[in-house]
Amino acid sequence: MKIVALFFPKASIGTYLVAMAVAIALPIFAFVALLLLQLEDNQRSALKRETVQDALALSRIIDRQLQDMATTLRLLSSSPELENGDLASFHERTETALRNNSLYVLAVDRTGRQLLNTRRPFGTPLGEMANIAALDAAIKSGRIEASDVFRGRTSGDWVYNVTLPRAADDPVAALIITQDAKDLGRVVTTQGLAPGWSAAVIDQSGHVVVAAGPAALEPGTPFDPRILPALGFSRGVFEDKTILPHMLLGYAQIPGWSWKTVIWGPVAQASILSTWRFLIIGGVALVLVAVLAAYAVARQVRTTIRDIAEMAKRMGDGHIVSPVETSVIEANQVAIALSNASFDRSQTEDRLRFVMHELVHRTKNLLTLAQAMMRQLAKQADSVETFQAAVADRLEGLVRSIELLTSEQWGGVSLRRVVDIHLQAFPQSREQIEITGEDFVLKPDAVQNLGLALHELATNSVKYGALSVPQGRVRFEWRDVREENKPDALLRFTWEERGGPPVIEPSRTGFGTTVIKAHAASAFRGTVEVDFLPDGLLWVLTAQRATLERD
């Protein structure tokens, strides 16, 4: 606590707000200065990332071009004309299909001799292809490969090949798509790059396939041999103040191919001297403005807090308070909350007094019922154990009703729930009971009284009646009835047992009979009929609906 008091002594809210403004402004000033110191490095890092991304973007473009050529080769390789050895038809079909493209197809045998070339009419004498090494490499690897750039014998220009090797026993050992390097240049542009930047595609041997930009190199030109050894990763950035002064180079390997793409150009570094001046002047101004703003806010907040504190004091004295109006929205919300709380407190006190009164009333009723129950059971019990068991059984039924009412805050419970809860005490007999009737909400007193009657009926049936044997059945139903000269709606509850042991009317009236007959009739101001029929007990309660249903 002493340490806290040392750093946070007692002071006005204005002092703390001014201190907070200074504490916020100064670190911001220092942080901005640090950012300026690192600005050049951050700019260079961002430029590196962008350079690599541009190289990757170019590699994807070239990859799509090569993949399209590979797809075309696969389609041509499966053509019926080629499979049947009809090279003339294959030549005609291929030439027609590629007429609008800058692509040409060659078919060669294993020695590199050209069987056809769509640059020339079919049947024209053709010699050996120019790039035998690329053919041998593709046949050896067994997959489609792109060659290095080379001077084509037929076209006389710089070209490159994409070679598809075929089966070893096929006369056509490989299909090749060839394209002039200058035609590939249509997809290699510096559009989107900063001014002064160039782009190029480099083959496996380090020669330029195609390039664009102010530093563009001609196809077939060797790329700087001092740089090539450093381009060993799948992507990256090359920097060397001696080789590329004030320049940056990014590269990316074209996935699945032996080529690379490179992007390079000048690094622009803006001076930050003027920014330093602005930082110093702006920092001082920021601190002054923050202190003045904190002082103004402190005055307003101090007045608002005093008003809220006065409201809280009056509320503590037990008054209902009206909300004060301030210029702070949150303070207005607090004021409204305090006002509502003072009103709610008054209502809660009234409600607590009412609940205490209800609690006393209901406790008296429950104790009276329990006393009457125990007196009646004491008269019939022949031992303490019998008395304890009987009391526990009846109290269990009463507790179920009270738990139901408590869960609903003594606001009434649906009749179906009351029936289900009390019959849950006899799970082994639940499937033997048929329940029918339209559900409605019972009054709290009706929940207790009907629950007692149901518990007694079920207990008696499990011990002596239909529920004591597997084949026994019980039907419990309720329905509306009308009687002459009685305009009020009546309800009739029927508990009917069938299939149980032979019924013998008891020679004396016990507590259970009293509950299902006298107590039920009295509680609901109705009539109860109990018949011990040979087939099973029949219990019928007829009462006014108004004594049971909650309004």
TrEMBL record:
Keywords: ATP-binding, Kinase, Membrane, Nucleotide-binding, Phosphoprotein, Transferase, Transmembrane, Transmembrane helix. It holds the Pfam family HWE_HK. GO terms for molecular function: ATP binding; protein histidine kinase activity. It catalyses: ATP + protein L-histidine = ADP + protein N-phospho-L-histidine. It comes from the Bacteria. InterPro entries: HATPase_C_sf, Sig_transdc_His_kinase_HWE. Residues 358-439 form the Signal transduction histidine kinase HWE region domain. The chain crosses the membrane at residues 16-39, 278-298. Its EC number is 2.7.13.3. PANTHER family: HISTIDINE KINASE, TWO-COMPONENT SYSTEM SENSOR PROTEIN. This is histidine kinase.
